[in-house]
Every structure is written in C-alpha cells, then in structure tokens.
Amino acid sequence: MIIFERKIHYPMKILPVEKVREADAYTIKHEPVDSTELMERAARECYKWIYKKLKRGQRVKIFCGPGNNGGDGLVCGRLLARQNAPVEIYVVRFTKKVSPDFQTNYDRLELVSDIRVYDIRSAEEMPDLESSDIIVDAIFGSGLSRPAEGLAASAIRHINRSPGIVVAIDIPSGLFSDACSMQQSDAIVKADYTLSFQFPKYAFLFPENEVFVGDWTVLPIGLHPEYIEQVEVKNHYVEDVDIKKAVKKRPRFSHKGTYGHALLISGSYGKMGAAVLAARACLRSGAGLVTAHIPSCGYNIMQTAFPEAMVSLDKNESMISAHPVLDNYTAIGVGPGIGTEKETQNALKMLIQNSSIPLVLDADALNILGENKTWISFLPPLSILTPHPKEFERIAGKSGNCFDRIDLQREFAIKHNIYVVVKGAHTSTCCPDGTCYFNSTGNPGMATGGSGDVLTGIILGFLAQGYSPKESAIMGVYMHGLAGDYAASRLTEEAMLAGEITEFLTRAFREIR
Hints:
Layout: E1 12-14, H1 17-30, H2 35-53, E2 60-64, H3 68-82, E3 87-92, H4 100-108, E4 116-120, E5 134-138, H5 150-160, E6 165-169, E7 193-197, H6 210-213, E8 215-219, H7 225-230, E9 235-238, H8 240-246, E10 261-265, H9 272-284, E11 289-294, H10 299-305, E12 310-313, E13 331-334, H11 342-354, E14 359-361, H12 364-371, E15 384-385, H13 389-396, H14 402-416, E16 419-422, E17 428-430, E18 436-439, H15 451-464, H16 469-491, H17 498-503, H18 505-512
Helix pairs in contact: 2-3, 3-4, 9-15, 12-13, 15-16, 16-18
C-alpha cells in the first residue's frame, strides 16, 4: 500500500465538507486504496495520539455512531485493545442504518477478545463515566447537516456530564463544520481535545466554538497531494513553512535604503507610548528607516525612548493636524494613539486623498473612519486595515455571530479592494480576491494594551521593505504572534507587556531564518 507524502509546499487549505469528501474519493481512485483501508489509516493516527496520552490504569470508552465516524472509533478501539489497553465500545443505535465501512469494522471486532462492545438503544443504557476515563466521541463526523436529536443528543449530553477527558475524532459530534452551530449548542460534545483529519475545520477558528473544540490537532492521513494542490478554496491556515518560504534573503551589499523608509503618523498628548511602540516594532521588523510624524509634545519622548527613529513634528502641540510631504516614503502607517479630534480627522482625510501608495490604518484611524464611512471608498487600493472586532463593527456594521462577521469582513475587503485584518485568536486576514488567511500563532497574553500598536509597526516594516500588502499583512500577523508566543513562554501570559513582544521579534526571526 502506497501512502502519499507531501513533497512540495502549499499553504494548508481549509476544505469545506464537500471538498473533503472529494479528497477522499480522489485518493481512493488515484492511490489507489479502498475506503476501508483509508479509514484504517485515519483511525490509526487517532489511536497513536490517544495511546501516547494513555496512563496506566486508564480506561478508554468510545461512543460510536453508525456512520463512518463511528467506524473510525471502532478501528481506534481495536488497535488500542491490541496494545492491551482497557477499551469499551458503546454503539449508539439511533438509526438502523449503518455505513458499509462501519459494518466491516464492527465485524472485525469479533477477532479481538479483549474488548467489550455494547449497543445503546435508550438513554437508560448509558454507561457510568469516571473522572479517570478517556471518553472518545465518534458519534457524528463533519458531514452533519442538522442538529443532533433523540438518542444521539442524549448520548452527547451524557458525555458532556462526564468528569473524564473527552477526545473528539474529526470534529465534536453535533458541531457543524462550515456553519454556525449556536442554535443547537446544548447538543454538541464539549471536547477537551479534537483530532482532525488532514485539515483543520472552518468551525475550529471561531471563538464561540472553543468550548466544544478544546485543543485541536491536525493528523496527516495521506490524502492525495495532487488533489490538495489543485483544489481551490477560500480559506487557508498560515503555518511556519508559509512564512519561511516568503521571507527574502538580504543581499550582501544592501544598505538602509534597500529596506525602505516608513512614515508612521501617530501619537497625541497622553498617548505617545503608542507611537513609540509602533515605531520600535517597525524598525525591529526590518525597515531601513522610520520617521515618526508626531505632535510637538512628543519630541523629547520619542527622541529619548527610541533614538533610532527620525522625527517629523506636527505644528500642533498636542495632536496630529496635518501630514508631512509624502514623496520620500515607501510605506505609510497611521492611527496608533492619534485620537479623534476634528483637526486629526481632517488630517486623515487629506492623507487618504494625497497618498498614492497603500496605507496601514489602525486604532484611532479606524475609529475616525467609523465616524466618516464615506471616506473608506477613497482609501488607496490594497491598503491594510487592522481592526479588533469592535473597531471592525464600527466601520462595517454589526453581525450576529463570528461566521456572519467573517462573511462581512470578506465582502468588505472585496468591495473596497483592501486587506482587512481582524485581530484575535486565529487573526483573520481577508483579501480583495475573497480569500482569507487564519493565523496559527499568538496567545491570550497578547490581549494587553499596546499589542495592536506593535502589530501596526510590524506590518508597516514589512511593507516598507518591499513586501506586497498581502505578504506584509499575513507575515506581520504571523511574526507578531510568534514573538508573542516566545514572550509568553519566557515571561508568562499574565506578566508579558506589549513592548516585550517587539523584543522577542529577534527570536522569531531567528526561528524563521
């Protein structure tokens, strides 16, 4: 049997359910391998993951539905039993129909003596679950199209009452893979761990599903690389290999002019820290030069706190009231700490009108756009907006849930021909062509004042160096998160500060290099 391995790089794609089925079918036809062998391959990866976690004396209790997800559970149980792990399998008979591959693997259990198999046909037959148990959920897979009900819902609620560790195979039962599931949230397995096959599920990337998905892992199962490479999808998951491929090698004879001159328009009275944080992150991410255009009150602060930056002083003492001449800059960022005073709003309006290159807009620049939505249509093409969810709501409108919000974010990026980066866990970058890139780095410790200013600086730094707006947004988000991960590992999530994210960019670049 041949197992195809990925020999060339392509970004990890997030396939909708129908495309996952196509990938399975393509692999079965072109490898070739039959569906039962493919199920064996997938379940073996689950078995290996669970077996590594298993402690002496722990019992594994597997709840299986009558479809292919249940078949995965049956194979996993058989393989664990062969290693003398104490396994009990509970088949939830909420329908008389079973899939052929489920039946094949159910029959194979007769060859295993050290395994107990029970049929559950009523809620009264649910087994006792102990705190020491590992409970494996294999009731429904990712193809679920309607809320769980009846006996299946009873089994899900029984699992959720368990004090043991819950591991979901492929996706927590009851959770929709590609749509919002909140209307049936009382009948969705709340897993501690989820083991997904080959690709992450779209549903894993939204905060309302964290309580169901827990910590998720993608297990490679050798789906055919030709199909994966050629299939077109809207959503991607950014990994380190994507960034390593994108980072440019620096020529030996380069100089500071080679890496661009960034203009950062930032700061106001009482908010000069935002300007310092963004300017430092810009230069630390590789820009050759950075000029901070700041109100006059910030001169001593910037020159003292960050002498590597050049300073352009606004004529106003306490706020931004105009922009400098733009001709000499390769990238322009605006927003950190500028406030929303009328003079500053006018300055932003003139910047939008006069800039011939894409802008990076964050913080108060976005709040100003929220008050002047007609200006958004006049943004330079391919500009980058980096709102947090509330800022995005101010510029684009409210949405009922995170699935609706990502649709709105995608539509907003297409409509205005810009990149929209909505910050948070798995920060999403939506592009003018409708594609979306979800980030894999970052941690809750980055939810601290100034972290967004650092991100603005990093993206601006990449843009100044000549990376495209798309590369700058995706790479900036990834490196920001990676530096934050290193900061958290050294300083803890609770104690890390935004400025320390910038300091750990050194380690992040070393890792990527």
